């Protein structure tokens, strides 16, 4: 298991829960994108505070976080993970 700070865990869970509330359909993706602005600060804080190893762990353990990230222009970053 990879160590994450309490803040990182909290922010990742918020983003994961947000993305998971929408169905994995084209319509669900559109709904996710409509409301994602409110979550961008949390997303940036996680991205800025994690190592590659931590990001690998987050993307595996929190598929909602990965979904949020890939629909917000971070595909290139996540491909390096």
SSE layout and pairing:
Layout: H1 6-20, H2 26-35, H3 40-49, H4 52-61, H5 63-70, H6 75-79
Helix pairs in contact: 1-3, 1-5, 4-5
Describe this structure in words.
The protein has 81 residues and is mainly alpha-helical. Helix content is 72%, strand content 0%. The protein contains six helices and no strands. Helix 1 crosses helix 5. The chain is globular and about 35 Å long. 20% of the residues are buried. The model has no long low-confidence stretch (mean pLDDT 89).
Short key terms for the protein model shown above:
81 residues, mainly alpha
Q: Total number of β-strand segments?
A: 0
Q: What is the averaged pLDDT score?
A: 89
The number of helical runs is 6
Helical/strand content category: mainly alpha
Distance between the ends: 16 Å
Helical coverage, percent range: over 70%
What does the radius of gyration come to? 12 Å
Shape: globular
The stretches of 5 or more residues where confidence is low (pLDDT under 50) are none
Largest sheet: none
**How much strand content do the residues show?**
under 5%
Order of helices and strands: HHHHHH
Protein name: Arylsulfatase regulator
């Amino acid at each position: 298991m990879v160590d994450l700070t309490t803040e990182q865990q909290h922010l990742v869970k918020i983003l994961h829960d947000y993305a998971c509330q929408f169905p994995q359909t084209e319509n669900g993706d559109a709904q996710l994108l409509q409301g994602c602005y409110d979550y961008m600060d949390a997303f940036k804080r996680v991205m800025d505070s994690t190592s590659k190893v931590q990001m690998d762990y987050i993307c595996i353990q929190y598929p909602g976080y990965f979904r949020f990230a890939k629909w917000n222009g971070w595909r290139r970053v996540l491909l390096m993970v």
